Structure formats: C-alpha cells, structure tokens
Automatic annotation (TrEMBL), chain B:
GO terms for biological process: transmembrane transport. Residues 82-269 form the ABC transmembrane type-1 domain. Keywords: Cell membrane, Membrane, Transmembrane, Transmembrane helix, Transport. SUPFAM superfamilies: MetI-like. This is Carbohydrate ABC transporter membrane protein 2 (CUT1 family). It is found in: Cell membrane. It is a multi-pass membrane protein. It holds the Pfam family BPD_transp_1. Belongs to the binding-protein-dependent transport system permease family. GO terms for cellular component: plasma membrane.
Length: 297, 282
C-alpha cells in the first residue's frame, strides 16, 4: 500500500526526538494526505461533474433530476422518514436506557438483544422485515390464520404508499434505535446519581425527576444522537430497496439508480449533492441551535 | 385490608413492586421486538423451498431443509463475494490503523496549533454522506485503472472509517498514562521506542476492539461497494445487485446469512459497546 507512512528522516537521536515532539504534523500528515486525496478531491469532482458537461457549464443534469418524477417522491419520502423515525428513536432509546438504569433481571441478555442491530447491515434489516411484510410473509400468515383477514394485506404493493412507509419506518426503528440507545446509555452513566437522589429526597415524582433532572443532563448525548441519526437517516436506502425495490424511492437509492442502472454519473452526482446539502444544512442547523442555547445561558 | 392493625402504609412497597413488574414487562416487550424478526428470518432460511411457498405459513416450517441456505451459498458469486468481504474488511482495518492510529496518538499526546481545525476536518468527513464520494471515486478509479478491485473498495471503506479510527484511537491513547511513557524515556528509550514498546502494547486491546468496529463498518457498507465494483463485489453488494431477479428464498437466506456475523460481533464486543460507540462518537 502506497499512501501509508512517511519515512522518518535520518537524523541524530536528539534532533529526531525534538523533531518528533515538536511536530505532530509528521504523524498527522498521512491521514491528511489520505483524506484530501480520497475525500476532498472526490467532493470537488462531484461538484464539477454535476454542473458541467463536455461543452462547459450546464444545468442539464439538474433539469433531468428535478424533471424525474421519482426524485420529488424520493425527496418527500426521505424527509418523511426522518420526521417520523428520529423522534420515535430518541424517545424509545431514552426509555430503554432508563430501563437499563432500573436494573431489571437478565439485564445482560436484554442488553445483548437490544444492541445486535448495531452490527446488522441496512440491507439485512430490510430482508428481515421482508420476511414479515411480504404478501405471503409471516404477518399475513398470522392475519389469515387468525381469521382477521381473508387474503392478507398487500403491505408492500406500490399502490399502498402508507403501508410501505409503515414497513420502512418499522424496519428503520428496529435497525437504528440501538445506536441512539448506546449513545444515551453512555451519557446516562456519566450523570452523577446524586442529583436524582436529591430530587427523590425532596419528593419529586418520577416524571418530574425525568423531566427536570435526568433529561437536562442527557442533553449533550441527545444532541449527538440527534445529529448523527438525522444525517444517517438521510443516507438510508438499502432498507427500502430490500423491502420495496424502487416503489418507495429514497434519495440515496435514486443516486444508485442513476449511476448503476441508468448509467448517468452526472445526474447521480447531482442527486448525491442534494443529500450532501441536506446533511450540511442539518448539521449547521443543530450546531446553531446549540450555540444559541449556550449563549443564552 | 388491615384496618384493625395500626396503619402500616404498604402503598410505597406495592408501588415499588408494580414498578419492578412494569420494568420487566417493558424489557421483555422490547427484547421480543428485537428478537422475533431475527427468529422469523431464521425459520424462513431453514424452511424447504416448498414450505416457503405455502400460504398461510405455519410458524414452525412444515419442512426443514438446508436447501434454501445451500442454494444461496451455491448461487453464482456468493462465495467469491464472501471472500471479497473478508479481504476488504481486513485490509480496511490494517490500512485505517496504519494511517489513523499515529494521528490519534498525536491528538492524544500533543497540543498544537491547528488541532481544532484538524478535528473539525475529521468530524466534517464523518458527517458527509458516502454517496457523495462513491460516484466521483468510481470515475477516479476508472481513470487510474483500479476500478472494480478489492483494493478500490478498501480505499473507499478506509476513507469512511478514518475519522472514527482517528477519534477512537485518540481516546484509547489518552487512557494510557503519560507516566509510563516518560518512565521509558527516562530509562533511555527514544520517544518512538517508548511509543512502540510501552504505549502500543498497552493500547493494543483497545485498538483491537476498535478494529472490530472498523471491520463491521466495512462488512455492512453497501452503496459504495455496489457503485465502484462489478465483478469484485462484497457480499452485501452482491445480494443487493441480485435482488432484482432473485427468488424470495434467496432473499431470506441472504438476509439470514448477513445477520449471523452480527450476532457474533456483538456477543464478542458487548462490554466495549457503550464506551466505544457511546462516548467516542461525539
């Protein structure tokens, strides 16, 4: 591998020691070079290819992207998914973390089960829930054998936008709540117990303690989880791909379509840049909010 | 009720018991939510192909058979893709440690101008979607002739893993006390030797744990691998590309096969999970 370590300059030991302690950049340089070459450069390339063609500057790629009926649906679906999934995950993860704090029986077993999805790929999660929501899947089998429905519900049929959204939302909650959970658990462990006990001594109810003592101290963790999850949810695509194919388009899935199936890198770059813009806007928005809150203190 | 006796207030005790029971029930419900889908796809994967076609399906498959899983394993491309996934994962771990760990060490040990700028740069790289990189990288790899190789996927995954590797290894090196390093230097080690002989062995368990995370990251990454390869796909990318024409049995077996490593990873890593994901991800 070529880009890894810069050779150390041949010097006297003393000079070398001073040099190494004096300049951390020697240690940082490989990672900076690597990231500039494989991260900075591609981002610039993406910008260029989305705005140019053989003859120079053009917005043709953007015209095609916005003219494509799938794109607007993908944009709407992606935003809808974030608005539904992220808040549910935050609430569920906080509840799970509080349950862990309550030291239930078989805690380590529960903890293991709750964190398994951390290592499950998006695609696998989609396929798992496909076995449930498929028209001949387990959920419909249950409905039919219990006599609730005659033939089952076509959960993933392209005409049933609502149930498709539901299936993707459930699969996303199943897959990605673990990440929020682990961040919140780490945060809750750093909160000293004294405050909570003090509040208890002064007769605060469980709700009051949660609302006025625990949650405010969890705020940094919740903010991190919020930013991370929103940005990751913007990139969701394999869950929907596994469950519905292109019937429930998402932004990143459209990029994949344009590049792999429609062989159009320029439009794919444009779609990717939309994801980039949304990610940056999200991150800046949250950081702004945090800074304002800090300034208000 | 104990009306004749002096009033003993049992309400708090009862409330406590009720709360403990509610906690148990809630835990079990959440565990079921996490577990049941995995059991179901496991059942689907061990059903015979005929049993998969049945409707309504019984919960316990009418015919057990290894045929479904076997068909998945024998499908074109599965075994090579598995090999590619393993290779890419291992290469990514090695490359990201070689490039990232020194940077983490510098961040942990030294105060210098530009440290904040460097960290912001890394965090920015974390926040940016992989999809933005994939398309231009594919073009770049096409031009340089490394397109559709295990090496190209490795480069992409290392880019993806680099910020996390740097930040996690920085926090690992911070937890190795400076004293031991200084002691080694007092006894005549150079700074580099002290780092290699004393600090590195002490940081090794942490680095090993973070390596497993890097491996999982690479193992699960789909979009980039699907975009920059055709013939050398990783396993998830291979399954994704086959989804269009694959029968249900292939999907279920594939989903199950992709989940199995997750069970092992998390079981091995469960004590590191909170520290590593929780505190270093911010």
């Amino acid at each position: 591998m070529t880009v890894t370590t810069a050779p150390a300059p041949v010097e006297t030991p003393v000079a070398k020691r001073r040099r190494l302690s004096g300049s951390p950049w020697l240690l940082l340089a490989p990672s900076i070079v690597f990231m500039l070459a494989l991260f900075g450069w591609p981002v610039i390339q993406a910008l260029i290819s989305a705005f140019t063609d053989d003859s120079g500057f053009t917005l043709a790629a953007w015209d095609r992207l916005f003219g494509d009926p799938y794109f607007l649906r993908a944009l709407r679906n992606t935003l809808l998914l974030i608005v539904i999934v992220v808040p549910v995950q935050l609430v569920l993860a906080v509840a799970m973390a509080l349950l862990v704090q309550a030291r239930p029986k078989f805690l380590s077993g529960h903890f293991y089960l709750w964190t398994i999805p951390l290592a499950v790929s998006e695609l696998a999660a989609g396929l798992v829930w496909l076995s449930v929501f498929d028209s001949r899947g387990y959920l419909n089998s249950l409905l039919v054998s219990w006599g609730i429905s005659d033939t089952g519900v076509q959960w993933l049929n392209y005409t049933n936008t609502g149930t498709m959204l539901l299936a993707v939302v459930i699969a996303e909650i199943w897959r990605a709540t673990s990440l929020v959970f682990v961040i919140v658990v780490a945060g809750i462990q750093m909160v000293p117990k004294d405050f909570d006990e003090a509040a208890q001594v002064f007769g605060a109810s469980a709700w009051q303690r949660l609302w006025h003592v625990t949650l405010p101290q969890l705020k940094p963790s919740l903010q991190v989880a919020l930013i991370l999850r929103t940005i990751l949810a913007l990139q969701a695509f394999a869950v929907a791909q596994a469950l519905t194919g292109r019937d429930f388009p998402l932004l990143v899935g459209e990029t994949y379509q344009w590049y792999v199936n429609l062989q159009n890198p320029a439009v794919a770059s444009a779609a990717a840049l939309v994801v980039l813009a949304l990610s940056l806007a999200t991150a800046l928005f949250y950081l702004r909010m945090m800074r304002q809150q800090e300034a208000a203190k | 009720m104990t009306t004749t006796l002096p009033p003993i207030d049992r309400a708090p005790l009862r409330r406590r018991r009720r709360r403990a029971a509610a906690v148990q029930v809630a835990c079990i419900l959440i565990s079921l939510f996490m577990l049941v889908p995995m059991v179901l796809i496991g059942l689907a994967a061990v059903s015979s192909p005929q049993a998969l076609l049945e409707f309504p399906k019984p919960l316990i498959p009418s015919g057990f058979s290894g045929d479904t899983l076997l068909a998945f394993i024998q499908a074109t491309g599965t075994i090579p893709a598995l090999g590619n996934s393993l290779l890419v994962g291992v290469y990514t771990v090695v490359l990201s440690l070689l490039v990232g760990a020194p940077a983490g060490y510098a961040l942990a040990r030294q105060v210098f101008r530009g440290k904040d700028a460097y960290q912001v740069f890394m965090l920015l790289a974390r926040a940016l979607p992989i999809v933005v990189l994939s398309v231009p990288l594919a073009t770049m790899f096409l031009n340089t002739g490394v397109y559709d190789t295990v090496f190209s996927v490795t480069l992409l995954h290392t880019t993806l893993a680099m910020p996390t590797t740097v930040l996690i290894s920085a926090s690992i090196f911070v937890s190795v006390p400076t004293d031991v390093e200084e002691a080694a230097q007092v006894f005549g080690c150079s700074r580099f030797e002290a780092a290699r002989r004393v600090v590195f062995p002490m940081a090794l368990p942490g680095l090993a744990a973070s390596s497993i995370f890097t491996f999982v990251l690479s193992w699960n990454e789909i979009l980039g691998a699907a975009v920059i390869t055709l013939g050398h796909r990783t396993l998830p990318a291979q399954v994704l590309a086959s989804l269009g024409e694959a029968p249900q049995a292939y999907r279920f077996a594939g989903g199950f096969a992709l989940i199995l490593p997750a069970l092992v990873f998390i079981f091995v890593m469960r004590r590191y999970l909170v520290n590593m994901w929780g505190t270093t991800l911010r």
